[in-house]
Every structure is written in C-alpha cells, then in structure tokens.
Amino acid sequence: MSVGHYENFPVASLLLPRALRGAVQTLYAFARTADDLADEGNAPPEERLAALHRLQAHLNAIAADAPLPQDEFTPLAARLREVIQQHDLPLSACADLLTAFRQDVTTTRYASFQELRHYCRHSADPVGRLLLALYRAEGTPQQREWSDDICTALQLINFCQDVAIDLQKGRIYLPQDEMAQHGVREGDLTAARVTPAFQRLLEAQLARAEAMMRAGAPLARILPGRIGWELRLIVQGGLTIIERIRAADYDVFHHRPTLRPRDWARMCARAVFAYPAQS
Asked: Residue 107: which of 95, 98, 119, 97 has the closest Cα?
C-alpha cells in the first residue's frame, strides 16, 4: 500500500467513525509526506534521505517524550504525537514506514520474494496494524497475522498494477529470480512486451497475492461493525483488481487496471452474500 500504493488508507476512512477520521487523516498525511520525500521531484538521493532522517528525528522525539525539532515537519509531527498519545498507537509502525521509504531511495531491485516480503513488512503491514490499533482491535497474534497477509497482498497487487509506473521511477518490484525463471528480462519490461513469459510471471505474482488475501480474509469476518465492513470491501477491492488484470491478459503497460463505479455494487454484494469468497 504505498501512497502511490496507499489508496486503501483514504478509501478505508470513508466508513470510519467520525471520532477516528482526524486520526486517520493525520496518519495518511504522515505516510503521504514521507512517500513524497522518497518519490517526488528531482532531488538527489542524499537530499531525500536527509529529509527522511529529519522526519525520523521527530519520531525519536515523540518516543522520548522530548521537544520536537523545529523544521518543516514540526506541525505534522505535533499532530502525529497527539494522535499517537490519544489513541495509544504503536509508534514502531510509523518508524517501519520510514524504513520502507528510505529503502525506496536506496533499493530498486529485489532478488527474491523473501526480500520483497521483508520490504512489505515495513511498507504495508504497519498500515493495517495502525488501523487495528485505532479500532482497539489488535486482538490475537493470529489476527495480526491475518492483517499482515491482507496488507502485503494489497501491496503485491499494486506492484503488478504499477509495473509501468514503477519502471518510470527506475524500480522493479518483481522478484529477480522469478523473472529469470520465467525468462523475462528487464528489456521486456521497458519495451512493454506482454509476452507469454511475462503473462506467466505476472500470474504467479497475482496467484501468490490472491492466496495471501484469502488467507487473511477471516479477519474481516470476525471483526465487528464498521471495521469489519471496511475490511471486507478492501479485500474485495483487491480481488477485483486481480480480476481486472487477468481480464486484460496481464497488459499493465498500456492501461492500469482500476476499480470502476459499477464494481462497488458487486463488491458490496460479495461482502454481504459471498464473503469471504472461496475458490
């Protein structure tokens, strides 16, 4: 879920209780700010990392209950401190997000799925844990594992969705060893070739993401009230994007599969009558 992969943060907030909306907006602003530092503009890597380190200094001050550094991030950090304290949120989740954004600056290729999963543990899983904490729904280790499965699945789907976009940033979030196994070269990606080998590679990624999504789906069934409904719709949204990519014969280069207005009725119906979907 980066904020390029963070669409699910604001989508989830549409159903949030009013008392939690400000907190979600602050968390989203923090993630969005950090993501933009890693991605936007033409600043060299050293400047991006320096800015992210300044943001980290604010987290360190919050953790130590110390005065915040005075810089461009002070107003955001002050709001974040208030939200963290008011809702007793895990500050470590925010630190994990910064770790992932720093990695975005320094790492552009991932040798294996294990490396990619480690990245997702910092870039995706913290979002779910923050939302669970907001709802006082951290629950059991099993529930947290389900949340991690859903969050990582969403990000893996985004990686498939955004192959072309990530390439423009010089990044590839497809495991290098699996690219080699399927006979897909970087030149095939830059040339936007939707070859049978690329189709098989992308299907392998989608199948893995779908399996993780379905593995985590029981969480939405057991969580009460609005958070359960939010999670059901988020899961169904991810599964729908997988369907869109498959229906397009895996051509994510020439059009980015997205949710359409008519998809929401079907997603709601699935959430009510056929959830969690089984295959």
From this structure: 119
Contacts (Cβ under 8 Å, ≥6 apart) of 44: none
Give the pLDDT score at 36: 94
Residue 261: CB atoms within 10 Å = 6
Query: In 3D, which of 154, 205, 208 has the Cα closest to residue 7?
Result: 154
pTM: 0.89
Per the listing, tokens 């993780």 go with 212
Domain boundaries, the chain: 8-273
pLDDT at residue 15, rounded to an integer: 65
* CA 173, chain centre distance (Å): 13
Rounded CA separation 9/273 (Å): 25
Nearest one of 33, 37, 57, 59 to 46, comparing CA atoms: 37
Non-local (6+) Cβ contacts of 50 within 8 A are: none
CATH architecture of 8-273: Orthogonal Bundle (1.10)
Reported as a single tens digit per residue, the pLDDT across 144-190 is: 999 999 999 999 999 999 999 999 999 999 999 999 999 999 999 99
Token pair for 80: 């974040």
Please give the Cα distance from 25 to 73 (Å, whole number): 16
